[in-house]
């Protein structure tokens, strides 16, 4: 089988906060993304510092309209250029585009009685444009874009009231776009609560007495997101019969450095902890090892019997995930060479190549992950983020010779196909940043992922014109042949 299953959903993915810009246009409120600052003085491998936002950072951000050092406020101007960009995606043959709806375009503070009509109209036109090009929308309800007002006035997702605000937001968009969207995701990378709690759940750790108190608050916020996801799934089934809700996980594939049983156990724990978030949304209950952890640490997570029943009754229809790299754990980590990445710092794997941003490129790890997830959950899978950030050079004739990107995707696609042959039910694939966008962690433009080059630099200088990279044409061939071009030279990539 040298093609993918019939109806396989090939496409790409972006997020509103990294692409749209227009951060204060047509009544949009401030989100957590609007206080994320470009930090050129901090190493791109210092993941924690790049994401960190303090109370002082928020106060400073609220006093300025700057879009130079707050790049997510400008994005790539997708807000005004979405018709042009969608036409390019259609030219590539996209079957699906993953987008998010910025909560603050619909409810600027998050708690308004009525939605912002201009925001509602914007997304209707965007989704209708996708449909006009025969592109299926895959819509994320919350992609690192919660209203800043809810962080400052409700302590983010730690507050039970935020569940109600999110439920109202979900019901509003379900009713408004029920004729346009079949596939939905509740929370982007819901497991990221501990990697960057401010961005994911609006928790500012410095407000808490100590690290343990902050950890308990984060788990409380996470529980509220689990409840909100189940509530949204319930509403979706009532409002749009036949629609599907997916969970979204960051798949962190972790290996032991050696066959030392202690290191194998370390890797098993890391992978088990990663699966916890999917366990709740797919099995409908907290795994026993997490409940034991709460008890051992004296965590008092407030939940009700109704919460637990809701989780059980409204599990998701499919599991989507991002996959960028694998990790290695070692008992001797302090003495080992380290690599950075988009997730965390880990021990260098000598069998893998490393990108310029410190990522360990591991296509086989994607196959392992697909098999692992499918054998565990036995529901359809969807790869909704995968790609490589790199420095691209625009040539004089207006393209980018990105053979390195083509090689990256070819290797990952081949492993996906092998996983399908191994029995995995894979719905589709959306490459991350199918057009260059502002990077999530570093807030850079020069960390480029796309098949389409956007003429803008890290400080926002440039024409913002779009240019097709060499990979644009290569991916078009892959989609057109449903993967057959990966195995033949009959249809080579062209400029």
UniProtKB/TrEMBL annotation:
Name the active site residues.
385 (nucleophile)
Name this polypeptide is given: Uncharacterized protein
Instruction: Return the GO cellular component terms, semicolon-separated.
Output: cytosol
Q: Which family is this sequence assigned to?
A: Belongs to the glycosyl hydrolase 1 family.
Q: Which InterPro entries match?
A: GH (IPR017853), GH_1_N_CS (IPR033132), Glyco_hydro_1 (IPR001360), Glyco_hydro_1_AS (IPR018120)
Report the source organism. Trichococcus pasteurii
Look up keyword Cytoplasm and say if it applies. no
Q: Cite a single GO BP annotation.
A: carbohydrate catabolic process
Q: Which UniProt keywords apply?
A: Glycosidase, Hydrolase
Extract the GO molecular function terms from the UniProt entry. beta-glucosidase activity
């Amino acid at each position: 089988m040298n093609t993918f299953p019939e109806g396989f959903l090939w496409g790409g993915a972006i997020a509103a906060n990294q692409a749209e810009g227009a951060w204060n246009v047509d009544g949009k409120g401030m989100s957590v993304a609007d206080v994320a600052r470009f930090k050129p003085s901090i190493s791109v491998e210092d993941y924690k510092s790049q994401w960190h936002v303090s109370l002082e950072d928020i106060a400073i951000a609220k006093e300025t309209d700057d879009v130079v050092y707050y790049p997510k406020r400008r994005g790539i101007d997708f807000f005004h250029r979405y018709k042009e960009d969608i036409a390019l995606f259609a030219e590539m043959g996209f079957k699906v585009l993953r987008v998010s709806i910025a909560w603050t375009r619909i409810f600027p503070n998050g708690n308004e009685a009525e939605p912002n009509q201009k925001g509602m109209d914007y997304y209707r036109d965007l989704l209708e444009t996708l449909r006009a090009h025969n592109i299926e929308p895959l819509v994320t309800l919350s992609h690192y874009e919660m209203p800043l007002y809810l962080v400052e006035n409700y302590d983010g997702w730690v507050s039970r009231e935020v569940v109600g605000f999110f439920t109202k937001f979900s019901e509003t968009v379900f009713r408004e776009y029920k004729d346009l969207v079949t596939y939905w995701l509740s929370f982007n990378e819901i497991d990221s609560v501990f990697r960057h709690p401010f961005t994911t759940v609006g928790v500012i750790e410095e407000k808490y007495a100590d690290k343990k108190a902050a950890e308990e608050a984060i788990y409380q916020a996470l529980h509220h997101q689990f409840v909100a996801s189940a509530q949204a799934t319930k509403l979706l089934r009532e409002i749009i019969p036949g629609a599907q809700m997916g969970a979204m996980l960051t798949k962190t594939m972790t290996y032991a450095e050696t066959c030392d049983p202690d290191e194998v156990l370390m890797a098993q724990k890391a992978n088990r902890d990663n699966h916890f978030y999917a366990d709740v949304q797919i099995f409908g209950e907290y795994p026993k090892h997490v409940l034991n952890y709460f008890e051992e640490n004296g965590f008092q997570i407030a939940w009700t019997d109704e919460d637990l029943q809701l989780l059980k009754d409204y599990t998701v229809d499919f599991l989507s995930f991002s996959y960028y790299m694998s990790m290695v754990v070692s008992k001797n980590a302090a003495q080992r060479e380290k690599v950075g990445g988009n997730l965390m710092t880990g021990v260098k794997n000598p069998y893998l190549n490393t990108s310029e941003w410190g990522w360990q490129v591991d296509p086989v790890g994607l196959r392992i992950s697909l098999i692992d997830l499918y054998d565990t959950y036995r529901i359809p899978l969807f790869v909704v983020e995968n790609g490589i950030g790199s420095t691209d050079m625009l040539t004089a004739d207006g393209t980018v010779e990105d053979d390195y990107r083509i090689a990256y995707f070819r290797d990952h696609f081949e492993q996906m196909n092998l996983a399908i042959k191994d029995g995995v039910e894979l719905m589709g694939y959306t490459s991350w940043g199918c057009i260059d966008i502002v990077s999530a962690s570093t807030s850079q433009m020069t960390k480029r992922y796309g098949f389409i080059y956007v003429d803008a630099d890290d400080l926002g200088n440039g024409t913002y014109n779009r240019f097709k990279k060499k990979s644009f044409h290569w991916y078009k061939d892959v989609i057109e042949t449903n993967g057959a071009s990966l195995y033949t030279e009959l249809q080579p990539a062209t400029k």
